[in-house]
Amino acid sequence: MKGIIRRIREKIPSHEITSESLRLGILLAIVGGFLDAYTFICRGGVFANAETGNIVLVALGITNRNYKNVFMAALPIFAFVVGVIVTEIIREKSIKNYSESARAEKFILIIEAIVLFIIGFIPDTVPDIFVTTTISFVSSVQISSFRRLVDSPYSTTMCTGNLRTASQAAYLAITKKDEAACARSIRYIIVIASFLFGASLGGILTVNFGVKSIWTCSIILFISKILFSIDEYRLIKRDI
């Protein structure tokens, strides 16, 4: 089976590679939006997916000589960096062929799902920094592992870059009649809409179910893992 998957790797168009597909991007963007809403509502009023705000807080803490705040803001940044390093180690060990790469990506999704499931058991009496730091790690792993949407870079845990690329592609589509740019813009708009949906869903479920609402993300990530397995089976059947 490994040999079959390896042989057909080069034959697969970008949009059919699960890790770069729009359908996976939609699921991961929903998770990204959900986590931001979750941490903002019940985990300290912060957005744990992006570290720009934490970097600003570190700078302000140093300026005000409030080193406790510096430490608290630096923890999620450190977790994010660790997540990037862990992902790169996994990628280096699985870069040889599609079979190993897909296995690593499925492994990453399962780890994410398990970690978020465990977070659902942590009561809101526990200091929020432990949860937000862990979610920063999960976000880092996700953004580092799944960073291409068909033929372009993107993010599933923040929307600034996606919004810029969507706007640029829309401009080219309108002014240059560029069909490829039009398709790219639509893909990015769908991912942004998915992030918005995830944030709305996260807001509703977190208000109603509290800390355990994060289990929704675990379910979505397990569905993403199943998607990988289905695609592998489809590719094998097509090649036989």
UniProtKB/TrEMBL annotation:
InterPro entries: DUF1275. Keywords: Membrane, Transmembrane, Transmembrane helix. The keyword Transmembrane helix applies. Pfam families: DUF1275. It comes from the Bacteria. The chain crosses the membrane at residues 21-41, 70-87, 107-123, 186-207. This is YoaK family protein. It comes from Clostridium tertium.
